Each structure stands twice: as structure tokens, then as C-alpha cells.
Amino acid sequence: VQLVESGGGSVQAGGSLRLSCEASGKVFSSNSYCIAWFRQGPGKEREGVAAITNDAGAAYADSVQGRFIISKDSERNALYLQMNNLAPEDTGVYYCAASRYAWVCALSPPWRVDDYQYWGEGTQVTVS
Fold first, then answer.
1. Which residues are CB-neighbours of 65 under 8 A, at least 6 positions away?
2. Residue among 18, 10, 15 nearest 91 (CA)
3. Which of the four pLDDT bands, split at 50, 70 and 90, describes residue 54?
4. Which CB contacts under 8 angstroms, 24+ apart, belong to 13-17?
5. Distance between CA atoms of residues 120 and 22, nearest Å
6. Are 128 and 9 in contact (CB under 8 A)?
7. What are the tens digits of pLDDT across the range 1-28?
8. How do residues 68-90 score in pLDDT, each as one tens digit?
């Protein structure tokens, strides 16, 4: 499985960006995987941002709740992260990730880094 992110860039505070992630396999069209977005800010550890849960709902980190929206397009086999009202603390490299264990999505929260086997290279988001 290969994951490729796109859509990062530089934006002013209060602006929006939409990140996309494409997969080589049917990761986003299958319910067998747990899929999520992570980010890593400068000098910080990688942290979970949002995940598609087992019941096709979504889980969000408290810091992005109400501003970010995770979604997937099964036909296009793509994952998205709509980011609104961006703030400087949202700056970082954003990663798309997939776990081959669907039960990961049942965890609370569903983003322990070690539970995810497949990672993209990341896309930089800079908010000033």
C-alpha cells in the first residue's frame, strides 16, 4: 500500500486548505482498514488529528474539533481533510495513515502511531 498526500501550502491565519490522500490499493474503499490523518509540528511529536471510525463516523482531536472535517471518496479511493479557520499552531507536516487492523478505529482515541503500518511522505502546511 502506498499513500500520497497533496494539497499542503502556506496560508494566513483564518484561511482554509484541503488535503488529499490517494492510495495504491483499495484502502479507502474498504472497511478493513482504519484510516486517519496525523500531523507533526516543529519540535513536536506526531499526533493524531482525525480518523474515520468503524461506523463511518469521525473522531477528531480536541484541538481541531469544529474546524477540520475528514472524509473519504470510496469511488476515487481518496481521503480528504478539509481544514478551516487555520491557526499558526496547525503548522506542521500532515500525514495520511492506514492501519490494516480495523479494530484500531474502535480505540479512544484511534490514533496510536504504532498501530498504523502505512504512511505517506507527508505534506507541509504552514499557517502565518
1. none
2. 10
3. low
4. 13/86, 13/87, 13/88, 13/127, 13/128, 14/85, 14/86, 15/86, 15/127, 16/82, 16/83, 16/84, 16/85, 16/86, 17/83, 17/86, 17/125
5. 9
6. no
7. 899 999 999 999 999 999 999 998 788 7
8. 999 998 888 899 999 999 999 99
